[in-house]
């Protein structure tokens, strides 16, 4: 019995130690190094946004967000900065157009286009756990995933990854 307790304690300690070493934002994605999912959705401006359009941009950022999401508000200033160098496509998850319009008028619009994921199904296809989540896509292939708000400290990493893909 004594050895069993010691073994369980050592196993628990090892699992805890290994878990603390990992970055909590580094949730693995099944899409890394794979083509983006096929999709076609209506945009905020009632046009269409599809995987075909994203595959035609050499490098693009895809940002899943919502106007009702407090962390999305936090990252918005960084997205405005990134949009000067890299095209950003927004996917608004379960968002009302009137709320989104008010939000963009207040904070500015960093997005080339905004797809309206009214049901949340597109987010599921991309493997989004929660919002905000941001992907860097090069030639239609997912190269990088950022979970949580893009902060000032993340700008250089994202710019460098995008620059390497160009």
Order of strands across the widest beta sheet? 5-4-3-6-7
Spans where pLDDT lies below 50 across 5 or more residues:
9-13, 19-25
Structural class determined from secondary elements: alpha/beta
So, the CATH homologous superfamily? Glutaredoxin
Tally of separate helices: 6
CATH classification class: Alpha Beta
Largest sheet: 5 strands, mixed
Radius of gyration: 19 Å
Say what the CATH topology is.
Glutaredoxin
The number of domains: 1
What does this protein look like?
This protein has a single domain, classed as Glutaredoxin (3-Layer(aba) Sandwich). Helix content is 40%, strand content 22%. It is built from 6 helices and 7 strands. The strands form 2 sheets. Strands 5-4-3-6-7 form a 5-stranded mixed β-sheet. Strands 1-2 form a two-stranded antiparallel ribbon. Strand 6 and strand 7 form a beta hairpin. The protein is globular.
Record the SSE blueprint.
Blueprint lengths: L1 H20 L18 E3 L5 E3 H6 L2 E7 L4 H13 L5 E6 L3 H11 L5 E5 L3 H5 L7 E6 L2 E7 L7 H11 L1
Parallel strand pairs: 3-4, 4-5
Antiparallel strand pairs: 1-2, 3-6, 6-7
């Amino acid at each position: 019995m004594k050895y069993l307790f010691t073994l369980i304690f050592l196993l628990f300690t090892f699992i805890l130690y290994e878990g603390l070493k990992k970055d909590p934002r580094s949730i693995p994605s099944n899409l890394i190094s794979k083509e983006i999912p096929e999709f076609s959705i209506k945009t905020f401006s009632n046009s269409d946004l599809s995987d075909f359009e994203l595959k035609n941009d050499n490098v693009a950022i895809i940002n899943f967000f919502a106007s009702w999401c407090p962390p999305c508000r936090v990252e918005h200033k960084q997205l405005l900065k990134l949009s000067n160098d890299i095209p950003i496509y927004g996917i608004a998850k379960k968002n009302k157009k009137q709320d989104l319009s008010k939000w963009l008028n207040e904070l500015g619009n960093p997005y080339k286009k905004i797809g309206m994921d009214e049901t949340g199904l597109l987010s599921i296809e991309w493997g989004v756990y929660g919002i905000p989540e941001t992907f860097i896509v090069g030639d239609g292939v997912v190269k990088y995933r950022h979970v949580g708000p893009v902060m000032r400290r993340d700008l250089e990493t994202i710019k460098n990854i995008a620059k390497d893909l160009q």
